[in-house]
Give the backbone structure.
Amino acid sequence: MPSSANGKDPAPKGITAVIESSKERAALIVADVEAALQNGRHPVVIVERIIPESPLSRGLKKMHCLSLDDHMKKKDQKAILEKLCSQNGNASVVMVTRSYLELESLSNLQVDTLLLAAPLSWNGVLSRYVKGLCRQHECGALAIYDYVDHLIPWAQKKARNSIEGLSQPWL
């Protein structure tokens, strides 16, 4: 577990850096994405930020993952979204930063599997996106993978909030 100089929990940015560089965590997420694709599912991996040389990005690149992040040109974003929407049910992997969950175009995709690759706040954007997906799918058809780091108290709190959010009635 990472620790700061004063012995307390590291700041969230420090935790995020440790999480993003974890090869073991990335391997677990990539294996879950591969399994989802083999089962004909349509996964979206939600990250805090996309780092091209991170273990997760390298692992997903082998699966021809399409990425949308905040630093892309609008023209490139539009081209990727059009490509995703035109695939007519063909399974693809999409990696997005959480800011993309609000895009109307992203809600048009046949997303049935969410992989939360970063400790994200359950309130707000993520909660609204999941509620929208639940309305689109039969009960139980939506799979959500939340990779919780139980050894980090800050991440434990995020996990407790996620569990509370998931236990809410959606419809």
Summary: DSSP finds seven helices and five strands in the chain. The first strand starts at residue 43 and ends at 47.
